[in-house]
């Protein structure tokens, strides 16, 4: 069964995470994605290790775990497009492509005639998605942008970490490159919107996606907490600024997360906890009151949760309809029966390792399901086949260009 985007061809000139993440999503949805990399070195993340993938004998391969996370369902070709012959290869591939993704500095590709203004004359229907740190305009446009920096500059770190009056206080980044991931998702949404517009008008367009814009947009309720009050929210550790109780609590053998979203759930929790009086106490009876009196309520809950194990609390709270859960390490995540039932870990054939474990796509489409066709490719693994099939290059043409360093 063909994927939802099986008629779409994507040329992915991006590297690291945000752009490749968008390319992988499009590939998972069926698009034919060609990843263009630098000869010899390739995508920066190929070298971001350890860890590296090991084969069935336990020997390390050259494929980093980081690279493997974002490059499934792509073909890899190596082209030096700083040289005229390489630029011509890209232009010929653009003529056959629907989408181009790039994450070079603003204006970086113009020197090679590979910017949007140049390529739209080659293919007026081209959807050209630029992913940068700060966007195509503004005083920071020429700066390089990396996820960690943007988490700080964009305010996320000011909201993440222990409160100032707690031990270990201070701003903290999120444990994964979340801004890159969110930018990849927004880039994908923009590409899909542009494809729909093109189907209506026949026109391509330029998509300007910036990590900083995405980070600010995803501040969500915290941004509105500031905009409606003029007061910058403070760090609350694992607590929620607008909902109480909505945080972690100690148990007899670990931790328990409570995410109580309404007053009915709080009443049920109070009953299970052996303190039904809490639900009728005017200090705690409504969420608004609980937020105002969190400094009183939270210690009371903590004094109660330590007398049962995490599993005992979950066994009592789940039947009562009180949202709760453990804090799992990744070994427990991938052993979780729900994760297994949803098949969130897959394995694909790999030319070096025999098999590579991967995290599945979370998309479940009934008519056009995700297909896993190609493991993250080796550097330049498909250069010959793509150039011969797409551009009618002969083996001699390819050998000559490879000898000259173009491929």
TrEMBL record:
Alphabetical list of InterPro entries matching this protein: CoA-transferase_III_domain, CoA-Trfase_fam_III, CoA-Trfase_III_dom3_sf, CoA-Trfase_III_dom_1_sf
Pfam families (UniProt xref): CoA_transf_3
Keywords recorded for this protein, A-Z: Transferase
SUPFAM superfamilies: CoA-transferase family III (CaiB/BaiF) (SSF89796)
GO molecular function: transferase activity
Protein name, entry field: CoA transferase
Species of the source: Halopseudomonas pertucinogena
Lineage: Bacteria, Pseudomonadati, Pseudomonadota, Gammaproteobacteria, Pseudomonadales
């Amino acid at each position: 069964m063909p994927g939802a985007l099986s008629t779409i061809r994507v040329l992915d000139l991006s590297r690291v995470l945000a752009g490749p993440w968008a390319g992988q999503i499009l590939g998972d949805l069926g698009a034919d994605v060609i990843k263009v990399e630098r000869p010899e070195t390739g995508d920066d993340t190929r070298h971001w290790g350890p860890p590296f993938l090991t084969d069935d004998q336990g020997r390390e391969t050259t494929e980093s775990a980081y690279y493997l996370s974002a490059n499934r369902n792509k073909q890899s070709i190596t082209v030096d497009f700083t040289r005229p012959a390489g630029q011509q290869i890209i232009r010929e591939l653009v003529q056959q492509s629907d989408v181009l993704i790039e994450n070079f500095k603003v204006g970086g590709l113009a020197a090679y005639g590979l910017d949007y203004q140049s390529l739209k004359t080659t293919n007026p229907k081209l959807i050209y998605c630029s992913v940068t740190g700060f966007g195509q305009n503004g005083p920071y446009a020429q700066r390089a942008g990396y996820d960690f920096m943007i988490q700080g500059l964009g305010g996320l770190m000011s909201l993440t970490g222990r409160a100032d009056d707690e031990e270990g206080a201070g701003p903290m980044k999120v444990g994964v490159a979340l801004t890159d991931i969110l930018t990849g998702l927004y880039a994908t949404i923009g590409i899909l919107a542009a494809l729909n517009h093109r189907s209506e008008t026949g026109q391509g367009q330029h998509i300007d996606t910036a990590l900083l814009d995405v980070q600010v947009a995803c501040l969500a309720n915290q941004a509105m907490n500031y905009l409606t009050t003029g007061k910058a929210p403070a760090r609350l550790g694992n607590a929620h600024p607008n909902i109480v109780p909505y945080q972690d609590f100690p148990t007899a053998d670990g931790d328990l997360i409570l995410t109580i979203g309404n007053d009915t759930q709080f009443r049920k929790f109070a009953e299970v906890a052996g303190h039904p009086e809490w639900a009728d106490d005017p200090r705690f009876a409504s969420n608004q009151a609980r937020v105002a009196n969190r400094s009183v309520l939270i210690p009371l809950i903590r004094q109660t949760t330590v007398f049962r194990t995490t599993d005992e609390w979950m066994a009592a709270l789940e039947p009562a309809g009180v949202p709760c859960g453990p804090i799992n390490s990744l070994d427990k995540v991938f052993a979780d029966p729900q994760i297994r039932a949803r098949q969130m870990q897959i394995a694909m054939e790999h030319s070096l390792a025999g098999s590579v474990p991967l995290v599945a796509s979370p998309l479940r489409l009934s008519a056009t399901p995700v297909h896993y066709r190609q493991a993250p490719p080796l550097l330049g693994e498909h250069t010959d086949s793509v150039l011969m099939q797409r551009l009618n290059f002969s083996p001699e043409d390819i050998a000559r260009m490879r000898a000259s360093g173009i491929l």
